[in-house]
Amino acid sequence: MFQLKWLWHNLRGDRARYIFALILSVVGCSLTIINPYIGQRIVDTFITGDDAVHNLTSQRSLLIGLCLGMIGFSLLRTGMAYFTTLLYERASQNMLYRVRIFLYNKIQGQDMHYYDHNRTGDLMTKMTGDLDMVRHTMAWIIKTIVESLTVFIAAVVYFFYIDAELTWWLLILSPPIFIVAFIFARRVRPMYGDLREKLSQLNTITQENIAGNRVVKAFAREEFEVQKFTEKNVNYSTANKAAAMVWLDYFPYLETFAQAFNVILMIVGGMLVMDGRITFGEFSAFSALIWGLSNPMRNIGIIINDIQRFFASLTKIVDVYYAEPRIVNGHNVEVKRRYKGTIQFENVSFKYDNATVLENINFTVKPGETIAIMGATGSGKTTLINLIPRFYDVTKGRVLVDGKDVRELELDELRGNIGVATQDVLLFSDTIDGNIAYGDPDMPEDDVVEFAKLAAADDFIRKMPESYNTIVGERGVGLSGGQKQRIALARAMAVQPPILILDDTTSAVDNETEEHIQKSLRELDFDCTKIIIAQRVSTTAEADRILILDNGRVIEEGTHSELVAKRGYYYEVFKLQNEGIGRQATTHG
Ligand SMILES: Nc1ncnc2c1ncn2[C@@H]1O[C@H](COP(=O)(O)OP(=O)(O)OP(=O)(O)O)[C@@H](O)[C@H]1O
């Protein structure tokens, strides 16, 4: 069975420990018949036998020995159970630790396409609840099945040894119990898949709500969010109750069968004692061990429920475990070359799933050049720049860096040569210094300050309570939009990449600050090709070339003066942005 194979595979490193635990479980549970056997001897020899009274005095040492044996075996069993549980816990926790690292690396290694199609809440559920279900399976479900089966078999063997007929009478109950359990398992199985999906939806809503709490508050939509959450919570709770109710449908049958073991023992066993076929001691042994038959039947429901949960969780984990990214980062580079910074787009088209977003894009950027990209919202600007570091692969055509198709370059090397400041700025919960030096943790403090100055961030950083050591909150909470953008810009520049990509990085800063940043970008003391997405003409005017994108196509291309002279889209934007400040729509030289 695939699930067991998977568990076995991932138990690598703890297999011996786990097998040892299983052996101890079997040995420990087999010993459960010893105390009933001793009890049987005590009853027959010292309580009900013909010579009982005489034996009490003549065989006192035997009685003491049997009592001590009983105590000894009880202690031995407790010790073994303790040690066995320890082994199961160790093996399952170690496995959980290893699989969690593996899954984390898998998720980390996925491409953008994967993140586009997987919800954060669902991935978090896989990394927490689902993984814990696997651990629970190793540490509890398998253990319980093995121990219940061992006790059952040991009891049956011992019962046969005492009296076959009474044993058959008791075993009559087993087939109906297994049939009921089988029907229950089939009915409840799909419910756990559904339950798992509902849990994931609940986690997704919770995660989104916490991450988006500022938007919720800004729109005073708390009540709406509570309703949304309540709906998912009700769905999850209803699914949970439905699964529990199914169990309740079957529970009375299983419990009745379990109780019937005692009834049969009383009736048939009692008659056999009266007939003298079995001794009173043997009857008491049956009585003491009957739980070995009835308990597994009682546990069967819980075990089946947990197994179904495990199947549902494992299916989800396996999704991540075997997911292969379309864009694979082999992390194979030993020496990272520094590129010159030529970028070429050759007949590039791109689709997200089925929607075409870029069509037949052609342009070349020489080392050291600055290209500005402008265009209406949704025209494909971000998508276009995402193709250079291979966040996505082209659908048609080629993107070349230094004359080589990016698909043939080592990803670490390629990405190491590109500094990106994305449109949505994400800062980590770390110091400002740590955030700027993210691309190179060994960066000297002086360099961090230098790049912060270039990004016009030094002034405001120094005004913060602990200057560069100030910890910024989750995703940069505590900073203004423009401040976050400047830190992100410093972070991108700080790796001194030969290719720098800025996606609307100065949209939230004032004109004066933007001018400072423009100047810094012009005067960078390392060779660098720049691709800048911008909406302000003040940003694009200085570029060597400007591309205007519309609906995924390049509709205009040229220098600022060429495009103004052309009197097309760029000219309109230029006019619009200058009207407000009364400047004339003139061409620059
Ligand atoms: N991950 C994605 N999956 C599917 N479609 C996407 C994805 N990202 C963007 N799109 C779609 O691709 C088109 C281009 O988006 P893109 O972000 O490249 O535009 P943009 O020009 O950068 O816009 P803006 O100026 O608003 O940032 C849009 O129609 C958008 O809906």
Automatic annotation (TrEMBL):
It holds the Pfam family ABC_membrane. SMART domains: AAA (SM00382). Residues 19-309 form the ABC transmembrane type-1 domain. Residues 343-576 form the ABC transporter domain. Gene3D superfamilies: ABC transporter type 1, transmembrane domain, P-loop containing nucleotide triphosphate hydrolases. It comes from the Bacteria. This is ATP-binding cassette subfamily B protein. It comes from Paenibacillus cellulosilyticus.
